[in-house]
Amino acid sequence: MQQFSVNPDFIVRDETSLRELFPATHELAIQKCQTRLDKHAREFISRSPFLCLGTQGVDGRADVSPRGDPAGFVRVLDQETLAIPDRPGNNRLDSLSNIVANPSVGLLFMVPGFDDTLRVNGTATLVVDPELLKAMSINDRVPKVAIVVKVTSVFMHCAKAFRRSHLWDPSKFQDRSEMPSLINIIMDQTTGAPDDAGEMKALDDKLEEDYKRTLY
Fold first, then answer.
1. Full set of structural domains in the chain with CATH
2. What 3 state SS string does the chain have?
3. Residue range 78-93, pLDDT digits in tens
4. What is the C-alpha to C-alpha distance for residues 153 and 123, in angstroms, rounded to an integer?
5. Which of 38, 70, 162, 164 is deepest in the core (most CB within 10 A)?
6. What gap in Å lies between CA 41 and CA 138, rounded to an integer?
7. Which distant-in-sequence residues (6+ apart) come within 8 Å of 110 by Cβ?
């Protein structure tokens, strides 16, 4: 594939030039931004089984990671504070390392079937308080750390992106088997995937067993 390069004549270089491309922000879009988790935000969070966590390292590099659990897994501690349990993963610790270096985070809460989302921005702290962690245990497995977020802004986001993408529309669901499995892709990208179909299936089965064993 030929490498793409941007024509410097078409780069937007400042906010003034950016805003000239768009109509003025609707007053409600400005006013809707809150600094506390009101009853609507708290109910949305209680229904949400999934969020995306955006972080940024000390070097300015951004990262987004998915977080998921049964609905209501994020605990609202007060009107300005929430806590996210950190479940077992691949131990890269990208998001957690970023939070140690730069506490600014962005959260996007989703609810299956809802086209609107909830956006929360704030500052995060990694906490190992035993009582808090125990309260977020599942199957008697306690998370090693909680991400406690002090909210600075919160607002509902409109449905346009989800309407455009038809994310929840079953008629638009794609067949996962049309792409290689996760472990196949990772091995292609690293050591090389085996050519033998039986060997590849054994690796796929092992990953599924690992999911069951290490989910919590």
1. 14-165 (2.30.110.10), 174-214 (no CATH)
2. CCCCCCCHHHCCCCHHHHHCCCCCCCHHHHHCCECCCCHHHHHHHHHCCEEEEEEECCCCCEEEEEEECCCCCCEEEECCEEEEECCCCCCCCHHHHHHHHCCEEEEEEECCCCCCEEEEEEEEEEECCHHHHHHCCECCECCCCEEEEEEEEEEEECCHHHHHHCCCCHHHCCCHHHCCCHHHHHHHHCCCCCCCHHHHHHHHHHHHHHHHHHCC
3. 999 999 999 999 999 9
4. 10
5. 162
6. 24
7. 48, 50, 51, 52, 117
Q: How many CB atoms lie within 10 A of CB 161?
A: 12
pLDDT digits (tens, 9 = 90+) for 99-124: 999 999 999 999 999 999 999 999 99
Q: How big is the chain, counted in residues? A: 216
Residue-wise pLDDT for 142-198, tens only, equals: 999 999 999 999 999 999 999 999 999 999 999 999 999 999 999 999 999 999 999
Tokens 């002090």, residue located: 150
156 vs 117: CA distance, rounded Å: 6
Short-list 23, 121, 10, 137, CA closest to 73: 137
Calpha distance 89→95 (Å, rounded):
11
Dist. CA 66–CA 90, nearest whole Å: 13
CA-to-CA distance for 123 and 150, rounded, in angstroms?
A: 5
* Residue labelled with tokens 């509902």: 156
